[in-house]
Write a structure and sequence with these properties.
The complex is a heterodimer of chains A (594) and B (159). Chain A is α/β, with parallel strands linked by helices. Chain A is built from 18 helices and 18 strands. A 4-stranded mixed beta sheet of chain B has the order 2-1-3-4, with helices on one face. Chain B is of the alpha+beta class and 159 residues long. Classes of the chains: A alpha/beta (594), B alpha+beta (159). Bound molecules: iron/sulfur cluster (3 copies) and FE2/S2 (inorganic) cluster (2 copies). The site of one iron/sulfur cluster (SF4) has 13 residues of chain A, from helix 4.
């Protein structure tokens, strides 16, 4: 059913149940919003989106109000403008509006509104001196500055609806009301997974990632340091957005160019260690299958889950600690890279590991926490020294005065720079599973995975929980116990969905062999460190770009990566071997649920 | 700790495990323990399978729930507008003077706690306050002195 109405005298016809805000979008009329976010339920608490309906006295919140037949809406009447300005004035009266000292300066939704509504000096009295706001900067991933919070609750809804964690809540009421963790403890000490989904949705500077830009500049400028940088798969399909490009553009070549111009000594690729992860994790899966199905060893656990998403890892440590033995012991590609940079790479290039500074560019805030885990020092040093988000890298590129759009394409350095299509798709939900299947199926049967163009489509896309069952037939003699076995796999993204899957595993309702979990909606390409805004449409564009990049790669299976083959020959010797155990595998920690 | 766990599980059995049971469970804790401790919140969260922060959010929202141990007599003065305009501030300073504590504090002998609360539905007889479950209305500083003195005398007589 269509509903007809006019907005600012323009006729528009939309589906019944649409909101006024959605109808306005359809005719390209912009209505400002603060508490509204496409990915979340409507809260309707900020009132900045009000519009006027002819014939009524009340102003309507357009984000919450459904359209009705014959409505005559005005989005820019004097009354509307006065009301909006008042909302902004009220917010600013309690807001530590030190824009010049704020990381969000120039990227802040509140600042943008205040500039549109030209707030003069005759606002409400400044309440800041009377407020006892605090800043929590104990976490290596996230900074929470209450003096910048406008209590729109996007973060609370994000953490509850998308992640089912509810690390953040609304505490107290009235003028004491605030966004709080349990007992207002530091984020570092509570169930927060550092996923940064709240950071990605906070309209102001109240929740931001912890910034390590200056430390990286210092390393780059230090004469005696060899600074290596690795780039995660999801960065190359999103960085452009923060530098003036449209979502969905692949900028791998420009990314490499830019990093070289910034002065990194070597520009290398996390995709290389993504391929390596597939070899280690794929072999671990086969080993677990052998122990369980062939040897009847009950100490070995199935289903095995992936371990590359640090938000997921911290989530399972807090929420399902009894399943820690089910998590693959393979480190994430970031940490494998870090461990190899200060061992294998250092040896090859004859550089003292203490002179190597290892930096990673990640779509993720949880990677900062991961790099800080005490167990991530298997090289004898901190394996990854600094983790920057896609957003921080964009800022460095601006600081350096680089015109990103006009950069030529460049190639990754060798060694640890070569990758396959399987490594690239790690950035999308289903990618790790698809990459693992491309390799494991071939190991077991000697044939390519039975999908057209190697594209394991059932595990792709934005569906909440995806399942694929693959029957193993005509297996190689070594794997005869797998003959006829149906390998049951499951892929999920967003921790709300992960929780559902784990509950199904716990109740015995689901009996998978292998589960891929990404903490962020859409996988890493929708990570908390990605350009803002991120929403479903943008995640879809980035996904298309990732699969496009895979199709363009000459080699699309991890085990065919020549550099990966070489590192086994020269250094690691064999998958799951002694060296791998020392450098590429890890263990997990039981955490409480506060 | 074990007593607390038993208390929580009794309350959960009584009220159920839905999120709606959170408030009655918190009230139950408040009634037996006089306040909701951090440990109690963690225990409730575990039982209801919600986050500890959510329990904390609810516990701090209602002025009838306390997250600190309170005195034997909990005085809650209405801070809502009508009472405010009828002299609630004088009532509070009188109480502060008599008890030698500030708003939000508990006397060192653990007898009295002084808090504010929202409208008690006694606006026509404001300023109003509650001492434990007992409402007192049409307060003046003098009346407040009498009320507190009565309680103190009763207390000293007991001891
Ligand atoms: S949060 Fe926005 S409005 Fe507030 S200080 Fe930062 S940039 Fe300015
Ligand atoms: S922290 Fe950010 S997202 Fe959360 S309520 Fe405050 S302003 Fe909104
Ligand atoms: S980082 Fe993730 S887990 Fe932590 S508060 Fe934000 S949304 Fe919740
Ligand atoms: S955006 Fe509509 S009420 Fe906040
Ligand atoms: S305003 Fe105090 S009782 Fe209603």
């Amino acid at each position: 059913m269509k509903v007809n109405l006019t907005i600012d005298n323009i006729a528009v016809s939309v589906d019944e149940g649409s909101t006024i805000l959605e109808a306005a979008k359809q005719v390209s009329i912009h209505i400002p919003t603060l508490c509204y976010h496409e990915d979340l339920c409507v809260a309707g608490n900020c009132r900045v989106c009000v519009v006027e309906q002819t014939g009524t006295n009340r102003l309507l919140p357009s984000c919450a109000m459904p359209v009705s037949e014959g409505m005559d809406i005005h989005t820019n009447s004097l009354k509307v403008r006065a009301a909006r300005k008042q909302v902004v004035e009220l917010l600013i009266s309690e807001h530590n509006a030190e824009c010049t000292r704020c990381y969000k300066n120039g990227k802040c939704e509140l600042q943008e509104l205040s500039s549109e509504y030209i707030l003069g000096d005759n606002g409400f009295i400044d309440l800041i001196p009377f407020k006892k706001y605090t800043i929590d900067n104990f976490s290596p991933s996230i900074i929470k500055d209450d003096s910048k919070c406008i209590r729109c609750q996007r973060c609370v809804r994000t953490c509850t609806e998308l992640q089912s964690i509810s690390a953040l809540t609304v505490a107290h009421k009235g003028k004491e009301m605030k966004i709080s963790s349990f007992y207002d403890k530091p984020m570092y000490e509570v169930v927060c997974t550092n996923c940064g989904q709240c950071v990605n949705r906070c309209p102001t500077g109240a929740l931001t990632e912890k910034i390590y830009i200056d430390q990286v500049w210092e390393a780059i400028c230090a004469e005696d340091k060899h600074v290596v940088v690795q780039t995660a798969p999801a960065v190359r399909v999103a960085l452009g957005e923060a530098l003036g490009m449209e979502p969905g553009e692949i900028i791998t070549g420009k990314l490499v160019s830019a990093l070289r111009r910034l002065g990194f000594s070597a520009v290398l690729d996390t995709d290389f260690t993504a391929d390596l992860t597939i070899i280690e994790e794929g072999n671990e899966l086969l080993q677990r299958l052998t122990k369980v199905l062939k040897d009847g060893d009950t100490s070995v656990k199935l289903p095995m889950t992936t371990s590359c998403s640090p938000g997921w890892v911290k989530f399972i440590e807090h929420t399902f600690p009894e399943y820690l033995d089910n998590v693959s012991t393979a480190k994430s590609p970031q940490q494998m890279f870090g461990a190899l940079a200060k061992t294998f790479y250092a040896e090859k290039l004859k550089i003292e590991p203490e002179n190597i500074v290892s930096v990673s560019i990640m779509p993720c805030t949880a990677k900062k926490f991961e790099a800080d885990r005490p167990e991530m020092q298997s090289s004898g040093y901190k394996d990854v020294d600094f983790v920057l988000t896609t957003r921080e890298l964009a800022l460095m590129i601006k600081q350096a005065g680089i015109d990103f759009l006009s950069l030529p394409d460049d190639e990754y350095d060798s060694i640890m720079g070569q990758s396959t299509g399987a490594g690239v798709i790690f950035g999308a939900t289903g990618g790790v599973m698809e990459a693992a299947l491309r390799t494991a199926y071939e190991v077991v049967t000697g044939r390519e995975v039975p999908f057209k163009n190697l594209e394991v489509t059932p595990v792709r896309g934005m569906e909440e929980v995806k399942e694929a069952t693959i029957k193993l037939e005509n297996v190689l003699p070594k794997w005869d116990f797998l003959e006829g076995v149906e390998l049951k796999t499951c892929v999920t993204h967003g921790l709300t969905n992960a929780k559902k899957v784990m509950e199904a595993v716990k109740s015995g309702e689901a009996n998978y062999h292998f589960i891929e979990v990404m903490a962020c909606p859409g996988g890493c390409l929708g990570g908390g460190g990605q350009p803002i805004p991120t929403n479903l449409q943008i995640r879809q564009k980035r996904t298309e770009a990732i699969y496009q990049e895979d199709r363009l790669k000459a080699i699309r299976k991890s085990h065919e990566n020549p550099e990966v083959q070489k590192i086994y020959e020269e250094f690691l010797k064999e998958p799951l071997g002694a060296m791998s155990h020392e450098l590429l595998h890890t263990h997990y920690t039981v955490r409480n649920r506060q | 700790m074990n007593d607390l766990r038993n208390l929580v599980s009794t309350l959960v059995d009584k009220h159920g495990r839905d999120e709606e049971s959170l408030l009655p469970i918190l009230q139950g804790i408040e009634n037996s323990e006089s306040y909701v401790s951090q440990e109690a919140m963690v225990e409730i969260a575990k039982e209801l399978n919600i986050s500890a922060a959510q329990v904390y959010g609810t516990a701090t929202f209602y002025s009838f729930l306390s997250i600190q141990p309170l005195g034997k007599y909990v005085i809650r003065v209405c801070k809502t507008i009508t009472c405010s305009m009828h002299g609630k501030n004088q009532v509070i300073s009188e109480l502060e003077n008599m008890l030698k504590i500030k708003l939000g504090e508990t006397t060192s002998d653990k007898r009295f706690s002084l808090l504010e609360t929202n409208c008690l539905g006694q606006c026509h007889k404001g300023p109003a306050m509650l001492i434990n479950d007992e409402p007192y209305t049409d307060l003046t500083p003098e009346k407040v002195r009498e009320i507190i003195r009565d309680i103190q005398q009763k207390e000293f007589a007991v001891n």
